[in-house]
């Protein structure tokens, strides 16, 4: 692997990309509005008056701020409704209203388009990070720490802008990260010619944002962080901490119980004076703030109740040759597998991740979404989700897609008791099997009789065991009636494993 250049100064950002995400009229207007709001200060009555006038100049913004101030956690003891912006600023606090106004500017400017789900996911991460910054400012040892909320809000600006303006590049970066070869900083450097952090710094400089906020976007060294020597270093640590917390909360319904908490405390605990109890309190407070913020924005989460058809997704991702141009979405290999399988898997993985992260989807909904992605992205003939039935001591198909799905689902069942066949061996060893030629004598000898009778024409298939804490719970099975000589490249394998990991997380006991 080639050496990955380190983040450089804003001037090193690829000029064409910078012009696109910061130079057009809409983005120039956004930058001007952002800079104007940031310049407002609570140190005088004039600052409060300027903020109130800014809010009132936009009817939609006024309605959102009033809706936020009337949320349950902000209501006054007497339960009186807040009806004026000045009262909202008094109740919420100047800095909270200013941060909310900045967040709403980003939502209005960047939300929407064919990349809607990706942009909304990144917007949610930015909003959540800003909530973390707000809470950290309250316990900061530094005077004037209120800027932490703004520093955190812009920590996710790089991915947000690329998702909004260069969606194909955004998905290429996500695919490289999902494959496990690169960090987000390395992948963005390879695809964009600059890291996400460098892009954010460059855009903020272009918008003439104060240096303290720009410096807070810098990448930190890996490993445990020391106690900050000054307010600027503390802001940088909090911005990094804020987006890490936001990412964890975005993918876990119970972040405080996630195994990633230990790594967060090891990295940030000493520097930010946080322990397990403090982190759990932070998760709860931030979640309340996020609920109120999203309600005030009338902001639908990036999760959709139904997984959209894979072939309705835009763009084509070709990891083997990033500059070779787009392939035709309608082209398939001779096996029936789409040539843009990696892109379809990535799109489905993003949807499944958002679905599980919402906390509103049942386990079977997550599993069915993953099955649908696997079936469509890889072009299988028949695909099924098979789970263990304790009452009958069998593994039985619970859902199926493809040709003769109902009939094949009814017959796809086998004893849970250990046998010396391919399916039991895969479950016992938690080994993902990708069989290119099911008629190979050695493979044929390991296929049970029930399988040969039910699916005599399956020439290639995969088996993905679902094992949690060394306990086999079931498996995904999918097949074709023709060989698949194109195989499963490393990037597709990584995405399939990541898709399976989401299902395992949903199956794991709370």
What does the main sheet amount to? 6 strands, antiparallel
Structural class: alpha+beta
What's the number of extended β-strand segments?
6
Order of helices and strands: HHHHHHHHHHHHHHHHHHEEHEHEHHEEH
Helix content: 40-55%
Shape descriptor: elongated
On the 0 to 100 scale, the average pLDDT is 79
- What separation lies between the terminal Cα atoms? 39 Å
Count of separate DSSP helical elements: 23
Taking Cα atoms only, what radius of gyration do you get, to the nearest Å? 25 Å
Helices and strands, with pairings:
Layout lengths: L14 H8 L2 H15 L5 H12 L2 H11 L15 H8 L1 H17 L5 H23 L9 H6 L3 H9 L1 H12 L5 H9 L3 H11 L4 H5 L15 H21 L8 H13 L3 H21 L44 H17 L5 H16 L3 E8 L4 E9 L2 H7 L1 E3 L6 H8 L3 E3 L5 H5 L3 H6 L5 E9 L2 E10 L9 H18 L3
Antiparallel strand pairs: 1-2, 1-6, 2-3, 4-5, 5-6
Helix pairs in contact: 2-6, 4-5, 4-16, 5-6, 6-7, 7-9, 7-14, 7-16, 9-10, 10-11, 10-17, 14-15, 17-18, 17-23, 18-23
Describe the model:
By secondary structure, the chain is of the alpha+beta class. It has helices at 15-22, 25-39, 45-56, 59-69, 85-92, 94-110, 116-138, 148-153, 157-165, 167-178, 184-192, 196-206, 211-215, 231-251, 260-272, 276-296, 341-357, 363-378, 405-411, 422-429, 441-445, 449-454, 490-507, and strands at residues 382-389, 394-402, 413-415, 433-435, 460-468, 471-480. It has a six-stranded antiparallel sheet, with helices on both faces. β5 and β6 (471-480) form a beta hairpin. The radius of gyration is 25 Å and the shape is elongated. The two termini are 39 Å apart. Residues 1-12 and 301-330 have low confidence and may be disordered.
